[in-house]
């Protein structure tokens, strides 16, 4: 019974991971990255590490959007990701909201996403 359960678990994980769309992009002003797009999340994997975005609903099957909101101290950070698989472009915008200084915006651009 344990072997049957283990075999079923492996098959299920392979099926779920095969449903995820993997997209590799060339970084324009940032290192190259790989995105794994699921129904609920988008995972960004690059040389500096990985991040998991909560996927936002969109009307197009070619455009995928995700967002992360964090809070550190009294400051807030919002990261918004948009990947267009039809044009092959992606953009990650990071906005840091500081309580004592002006806000900072950093945009990472990717192209040739396949």
Rg computed from alpha carbons, rounded to a whole number of angstroms: 17 Å
Q: Number of domains in the coordinates?
A: 1
Q: What share of residues is helical?
A: 10-25%
How many strands? 8
Mean pLDDT: 86
Backbone shape: globular
Low-pLDDT ranges:
1-15
- Return the structural class: alpha+beta
Describe the sheet with the most strands: 8 strands, antiparallel, barrel
Report on the structure:
The chain has 114 residues and is α+β, with helices and mostly antiparallel strands. The protein has one domain (20-111). It contains 1 helix and 8 strands; from the N terminus they run H-E-E-E-E-E-E-E-E. Strand 6 (75-84) and strand 7 form a beta hairpin.
Identify the notable features of this structure and list them briefly:
single chain; 114 residues; alpha+beta; eight-stranded antiparallel β-barrel; 1 helix; 8 strands; disordered N terminus
Topology overview:
Blueprint: H1 2-19, E1 21-27, E2 33-37, E3 41-46, E4 49-56, E5 63-72, E6 75-84, E7 89-97, E8 104-111
Antiparallel strand pairs: 1-2, 1-8, 2-3, 3-4, 4-5, 5-6, 6-7, 7-8
């Amino acid at each position: 019974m344990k072997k049957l359960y283990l075999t079923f678990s492996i098959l299920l994980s392979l099926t779920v991971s095969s449903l995820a769309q993997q997209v590799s992009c060339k970084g324009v002003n940032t290192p190259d990255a790989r995105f794994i797009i699921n129904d609920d999340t988008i995972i960004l994997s690059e040389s500096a590490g990985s991040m998991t975005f909560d996927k936002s609903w969109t009307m197009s099957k070619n455009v995928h959007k995700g967002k992360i909101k964090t809070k550190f101290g009294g400051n807030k950070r919002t990261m918004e990701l948009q990947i267009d698989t039809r044009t092959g472009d992606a953009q990650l915008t990071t906005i840091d909201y500081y309580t004592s200084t002006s806000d900072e915006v950093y945009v990472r651009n990717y192209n040739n996403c396949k």
